[in-house]
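The material for today's practical consists of a large collection of protein records. There is nothing in a record beyond a sequence line and a structure line. As an example, a complete record with its sequence and its structure tokens follows:
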Amino acid sequence: MKVSDILRIKGHTIHSAQPQQPLLDAVRLMSQYDIGSLVVLDSGQLVGMLTFREVIQDLVREGGSLGRALVRDAMVHDPLVCTPDTDLDEVRRMMLERHARYMPVLEQGQLIGVISFYDVAKSVVDSQNFENKMLKAYIRDWPEGQAPTQG
């Protein structure tokens, strides 16, 4: 399974912020859309990733107030990225190694979507459920009186 399979089901909706935008505005946007991340774009190019993890870290650093903080003050400057052709096993490995919950998807340098660890986990579970269903149907339909061949 590839990242493109997730995007085909999930869609390509992208919510973004700009580095010079007040962090509070970005948090409001995340709350409004009930999302856990924003890609940070500068002149249409991916320059960072902002998640609630970074927002919380900034809140702690600033004593509980977002104050005049800007998105660039809190964002991850080198976000983990993948392509539509990246295999989901590789995505899982990368996300686990970097503790990343969100990953922008780039195609020929252009941002085409964002996938989450939830999206990846859901696709794995859905795939396993489908395989289990097919195996159970196959076993149920096994012709009576015939033993399975080994080989």
About this structure: Strands lie at 16-17, 37-42, 45-51, 102-107, 110-116. The longest strand covers residues 45-51.
